[in-house]
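re the bet — no i am not wrong, look at it urself. input seq straight from the record:
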Amino acid sequence: MSPALYHPSDSRPAPPGLSIRATRLEDVDAITALANLPGYRAGTLRLPYQKPELARRWLEGQGAEAFNLVAVLDGIVVGNAGLDRYGGRRSHAAGLGMGVHDDHRGKGIGTALLREIIDAADQWLRIERLELTVFADNLRAIRLYERFGFEQEGFLHNYAFRAGAFADAHLMARLRG
């Protein structure tokens, strides 16, 4: 049996001063700075020392189906999240990626980002299945995803080489119903 789907009233309020908005081309430097933080990077497949050109190409290359947000706290980008909708017979599904600034974890920013992503997926994009991969040692993220109805569907041994060792990961998904 699937867990109950997330409802907006289930989550804690966003921190004061936090706003969520669409990414902009002028966010390139802020997104690059996030990607270069050790904790943020540890949850991704990114290499150290990301260049702004990579973020610029990513932002400029977004298609019409892309849905990407940033979390801004008191004027500073402190998180980002996005959906990558699949095509063809998988157009009902999308991959989810997100991250929060190392110094701002545990403040409700990930919750606020995920709330907006899921609202868009359910209410505007008619996405029935959200998928993600999360490193097995990222317990805080796993608990967040579970609160929003994600379930583990698989386990990937030695998924990626990170900080000198192989790391395992969970495949998780949330079905709209």
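see?? Residues 8-127 form a domain with the Aminopeptidase fold (CATH 3.40.630.30). told u. also The radius of gyration is 16 Å. so pay up
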